[in-house]
Amino acid sequence: MVSKEYDFYRNLRRKIKDWVLNKNDANNKWAEYILLAPDLFYLLYKLALDKDVLVADKVKLAAAIAYFISPIDLVPEALLGPVGYIDDVALAAYVLNLIINHTKPELIRKHWSGEGDVLEVIQRILKLADQMLGSGLWNRLKAKF
């Protein structure tokens, strides 16, 4: 049986890949990061289910998952298409960065389905999040967590 979360992951991956490949948006300067959205979502989901993750961290992970799934957020996908996932990507990296100190890096790497070292990916996103979203929006998003 396929879970709703896995279905969301597969549909999101397909939607974003189609957007980048078929809409000639490969030149969008944030396309590389938007393509990380499905992998970051799946990582949040897998960590939230892992028995070795602290309950307090699972609450943060669950909130980030809810933000991903919610049609109402600061940069709405319904209006902007996949570009609207840029805030979800930044928030996922922010939440993952918050829990890294309480979780063994091997555990995070174990659940990473994306390319490259997940810890480096997280740091790269956080370094650019202010540019991706603008400082006002980025600060509002971080304040929720």
Which descriptors would you attach to this protein?
single chain; 145 residues; mainly alpha; 9 helices
Furnish the topology, listing elements before pairings.
Layout: H1 4-22, H2 31-34, H3 37-49, H4 55-69, H5 77-80, H6 86-100, H7 105-111, H8 118-133, H9 135-143
Helix pairs in contact: 1-3, 3-4, 3-6, 4-6, 6-8, 8-9
Question: Could you describe the 3D structure shown?
Answer:
There is one protein chain. By secondary structure, this protein is mainly alpha-helical. The chain has one domain. The chain is built from nine helices and no strands. It has helices spanning 4-22, 31-34, 37-49, 55-69, 77-80, 86-100, 105-111, 118-133, 135-143. Helix 1 (4-22) packs antiparallel against helix 3 and helix 8 packs across helix 9 (135-143). The mean pLDDT is 85.
